[in-house]
Amino acid sequence: MSDAPRTRALYNSDCPVCDGEMCTYAAYSETKDLPIAFDDLNAIDLADWGVTEDEATRLLHVLHEGRLHIGFDAMLILWVQMPRYAWMAKIGRLPVIFQIADWLYKHVVARVIYERHLRRKARGLVKQSG
Prior knowledge:
Elements: E1 7-11, H1 16-31, E2 36-40, H2 53-58, E3 61-64, E4 67-70, H3 72-81, H4 86-92, H5 95-122
Parallel strand pairs: 1-2
Antiparallel strand pairs: 1-3, 3-4
């Protein structure tokens, strides 16, 4: 990257969905030399983000220009930074679309992903922190 990242995404590399999506975004960002960094919550000190492991695995967290965004809003912040996805951010910001997508992300998508993470963790398929 040519400049220090102005946007950082915190994601769970132990989650196949999260890892796949963030790796796609990271590869695109690298190709376009975008000032976006991707922090694996399993490889950093979460105190630097001010979140617990549980909070970090429940919803996407994005730090953009010093402000923390969580959930669907965090996804929109990422998308708007990447030309290929900026149109999705514009649509996602429309009031009714945002309300529906934010609710679906929080109460359906993220919940299912989080519960799968907990099952993988209980079966010993992910790193145990501590």
